[in-house]
């Protein structure tokens, strides 16, 4: 029986070779796209699975009215909570910033690597595999340092296991020496915790006043909870404790207390931290984009299934007599369904194999696009996709299987099934759904292109072309070392041929503001702004970036008052204080970064973007870099290059940097325009992926439409022959064959409009500066789909007008 079923299946595959190829091609592409997005999602979900008891370890996050959502906590919040609440077994602090690197030196060798500043119990929370030494006591005192296996290999060669007790020099603030206490092996699985070395946080070596402040958000903290803890109840307790202590500080500083905007504490499981962190997280992934793409790839897979269902039902008239005869000779309905399901499964299995081959070929390029190293070595992936194959085959095969098995022998043997209303209704409904999905993708793709284009072309408020930024390394804090180093480097680099100008600032355009604080009106202290960007700048900063003044003047080095208390504000700050630009001139403010010292506003500049244009411009107060604590925070050169010989100038700067400025460190630089453009990267990738998916959807839909129209028009060839005999011209026949498809297309686009509008309105909510919802993508979608539908169907309809009339008129 099975052998006969397979013979029948291959006969039908060969007979309908075009629709078979289209089915396999469509399913292969659909499965390939889904698998690529799926393995990305699985990869993001696999972070921190290596940690034992991960289900009991939680990242501590905070949110308040002043700073918004924070990944950092204060030391009292962590320590007092642990003592106060029995549910908390312990806490750990791990300050790990992957973009901040320090040089370790041993003898004549050095390594430039990331680090983690932690509490003593770090290796209890994160039990790396021990290579040498004692991990338990690796960082429990001053002068101890634990290094990774990779770091040890660079510094001590292949004999790194004997490095315990050896001394290293840390090229940071004081060039201090440390003793290697342990060597650990980093996990091979996905993790955000990959420090090149680990040391005790310097704040915990000696008691300091800042660690008694509940509002000193400086530490990334983790709680280890006892099994069975009610996490939501604990979050409420922690939030109440934090808010009560923050209110004490706010009363002390005379700040307004808003009970409606209480501070809140959130606990995020460490195994879900990568995607579900409430704040910016630790190397946080873009869950929303992944879920959107996963949903869209599922739609593409659905579209492939729709093609399969539609083509199978369209072939019904060809197999109607076969079903009728089999029922007459005793075949049961269940056997017919099983036979058709096996036929569908065979097509899906071939498509599944081809899809995996396509994934393997595309994976290197996909990894490069994502900046990842995903491999097809996860056994669970094959289990999940195998189950998907079975479910997909069952769903996509069951509808046509039941449909075909329900044929009535008396009707099918008479050959009148092609005129069945049920058959027409089912095909039209499925085709409508197919075109709704296609229209949805076209509309969304056009709107995404428009929004990203709007961001890319928006006036940024500054001119950053041909400007590079180089971070120089800290090598001391005493005696204004960093500000002096900046002046020395600025003076020497300015002599290099091709360098036009140099400036600096404590914030980095493209990376956002680093420091913020509250600012009050010096006369009416009830008027204040809770979070204002601190903008220490060089004197030529505004001229360098061609930032325009809307009122007042720039800082002037000739006036001592300018360098001591003068300030420049941006438009956003002025508006939030309740002034216009002219009213702000001469006004005095009390900044939170300096106790009781008044700053005088000398000028107001036009708003310029420091972060991406998807976020609002922050209020900023700017002043000269060589005052107060800012002296030791301006640690970059922003260099404007001549357009005549950019490559040559970069080579000359590199040579100076590697030989004179900072020997032993890599020469890292970034173009400010390109760095700022990276703030659009997430949305540009969404645009690229959505465009790719849109092309895939249209190809699958149009191939399916071509195959379907071919089958349906072939069923009408006798009608075409009769019409031609009666004198109908080619245009009339083509229109008769295509108008039903055009009506279905128009109806489908109309149905897709509210769905697309809702989806895009939700997507645009992520942008503070967004386009108004345009109408033209909806109109263009209908025009484009009508043209494509007419082109595909009319091609086959035109071929139908060239048939041999005698052949079809004599047939019965």
Description:
Residues 20-240, 435-654 form the MacB-like periplasmic core domain. It is a multi-pass membrane protein. GO terms for molecular function: transmembrane transporter activity. With 812 residues, the protein is of the alpha+beta class. It has three domains: 2-40 and 286-454 and 681-809, no CATH class; 54-276, no CATH class; 467-677, no CATH class. The protein has 25 helices and 22 strands. Helix 8 runs parallel beside helix 21. The protein is globular.
- Helix count equals 25
Strand proportion: 15-25%
Q: Which ranges are low-confidence, i.e. pLDDT below 50, for 5 or more consecutive residues?
A: none
Estimated structural class: alpha+beta
Overall average pLDDT? 82
Number of domains: 3
The tally of beta strands, per DSSP, is: 22
Taking Cα atoms only, what radius of gyration do you get, to the nearest Å? 34 Å
Kindly report the spatial arrangement of strands forming the biggest sheet.
3-4-9-6-8-7
Dominant shape: globular
From the N-terminal CA to the C-terminal CA, the straight-line distance is 32 Å
Helix share bin: 40-55%
Largest sheet: 6 strands, mixed, barrel
GO cellular component, one term: plasma membrane
Keywords: Cell membrane, Membrane, Transmembrane, Transmembrane helix
InterPro entries: ABC3_permease_C, MacB_PCD, Macrolide_Exporter_MacB
GO molecular function, one term: transmembrane transporter activity
């Amino acid at each position: 029986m099975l052998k006969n079923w397979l013979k029948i299946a291959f006969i039908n595959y060969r007979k309908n070779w075009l629709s078979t190829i289209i089915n396999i091609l469509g399913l292969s592409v659909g499965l390939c796209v889904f698998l690529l997005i799926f393995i990305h999602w699985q990869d993001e979900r696999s972070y921190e699975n290596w940690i034992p008891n991960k289900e009991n370890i939680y990242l501590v996050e905070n949110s308040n009215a002043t700073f918004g959502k924070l990944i950092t906590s204060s030391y009292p919040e962590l320590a007092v909570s642990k003592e106060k609440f029995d549910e908390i077994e312990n806490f750990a602090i791990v300050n790990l910033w992957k973009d901040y690197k320090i040089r370790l030196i041993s003898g004549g060798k050095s390594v430039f690597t990331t680090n983690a500043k932690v509490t003593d119990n770090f290796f209890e929370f994160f039990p790396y595999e021990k290579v040498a030494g004692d991990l338990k006591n690796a960082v429990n005192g001053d002068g101890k340092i634990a290094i990774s296996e990779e770091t040890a290999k660079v510094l001590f060669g292949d004999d790194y296991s004997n490095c315990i007790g050896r001394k290293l020099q840390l090229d940071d603030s004081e060039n201090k020496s440390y003793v290697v206490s342990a060597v650990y092996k980093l996990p091979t699985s996905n993790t955000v915790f990959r420090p090149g070395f680990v040391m005790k946080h310097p704040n915990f070596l000696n008691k300091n006043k800042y660690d008694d402040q509940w509002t000193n958000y400086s530490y990334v903290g983790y709680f280890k909870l006892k099994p069975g803890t009610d996490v939501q109840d604990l979050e409420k307790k922690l939030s109440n404790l934090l808010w009560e202590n923050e209110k004490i500080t706010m009363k002390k500083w005379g700040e307004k207390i808003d009970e409606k905007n209480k501070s809140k504490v959130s606990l995020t499981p460490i195994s879900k931290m990568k995607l579900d962190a409430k704040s910016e997280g630790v190397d946080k992934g873009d869950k929303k984009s992944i879920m959107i793409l996963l949903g869209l790839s599922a739609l593409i897979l659905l579209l492939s299934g729709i093609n399969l269902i539609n083509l199978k039902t369209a072939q019904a008239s060809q197999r109607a007599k076969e079903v009728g005869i089999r029922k007459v000779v005793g075949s049961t309905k269940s056997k017919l369904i099983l036979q058709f399901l096996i036929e569908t499964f065979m097509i899906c299995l071939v498509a599944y194999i081809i899809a995996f081959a396509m994934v393997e070929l595309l994976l290197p390029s996909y990894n490069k696009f994502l900046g990842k190293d995903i491999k097809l070595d996860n056994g669970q992936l094959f289990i999940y996709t195998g189950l998907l194959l079975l479910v997909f085959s069952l769903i996509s095969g069951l509808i046509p299987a039941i449909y075909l098995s329900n044929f009535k022998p008396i009707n099918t043997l008479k050959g009148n099934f092609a005129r069945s209303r049920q058959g027409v209704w089912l095909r039209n409904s499925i085709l409508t759904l197919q075109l709704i999905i296609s229209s949805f993708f076209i509309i969304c793709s056009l709107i995404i292109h428009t929004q990203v284009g709007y961001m890319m072309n928006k006036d940024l408020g500054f001119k950053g072309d041909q400007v590079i930024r180089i971070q120089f390394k800290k090598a001391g804090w005493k005696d204004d070392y960093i500000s002096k180093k900046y002046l020395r480097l600025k003076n020497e680099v300015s002599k290099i041929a091709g360098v036009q100008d140099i400036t600096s600032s404590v914030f980095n355009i493209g990376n956002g503001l680093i420091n913020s604080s509250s600012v009050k009106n010096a006369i009416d202290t009830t008027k204040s702004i809770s979070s204002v960007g601190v903008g220490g700048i060089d004197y030529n900063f505004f001229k360098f970036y061609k930032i325009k003044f809307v009122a007042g003047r720039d800082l002037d080095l000739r006036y001592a008052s300018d360098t001591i208390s003068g300030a420049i504000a941006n438009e956003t700050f002025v508006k939030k204080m309740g002034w216009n630009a002219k009213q702000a001139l001469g006004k005095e403010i009390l900044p939170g970064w300096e106790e009781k010292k008044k700053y005088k506003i000398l000028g107001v500049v036009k708003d310029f973007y420091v972060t991406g244009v998807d976020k609002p411009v922050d209020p900023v107060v700017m002043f000269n870099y060589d005052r107060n604590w800012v002296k030791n925070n301006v640690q970059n050169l922003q260099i404007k290059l001549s357009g005549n010989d950019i490559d040559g100038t970069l080579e000359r700067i590199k040579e100076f940097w590697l030989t004179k400025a900072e020997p032993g460190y890599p020469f890292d630089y970034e173009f400010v325009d390109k760095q700022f453009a990276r703030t659009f990267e997430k949305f540009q990738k969404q645009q690229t992926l959505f465009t790719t998916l849109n092309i895939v959807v249209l190809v699958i839909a149009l191939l399916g439409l071509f195959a379907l129209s071919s089958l349906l028009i072939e069923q009408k060839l006798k009608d075409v022959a009769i019409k031609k005999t009666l004198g109908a011209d080619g245009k009339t026949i083509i229109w008769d064959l295509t108008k039903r498809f055009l009506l279905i297309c128009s109806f489908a686009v109309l149905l897709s409009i509210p769905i697309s509008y809702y989806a895009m309105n939700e997507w645009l909510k992520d942008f503070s500066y967004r386009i108004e919802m345009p109408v033209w993508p909806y109109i263009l979608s209908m025009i484009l789909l009508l043209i494509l539908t007419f082109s595909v169907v009319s091609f086959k309809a035109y071929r139908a007008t060239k048939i041999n009339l005698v052949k079809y008129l004599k047939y019965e």
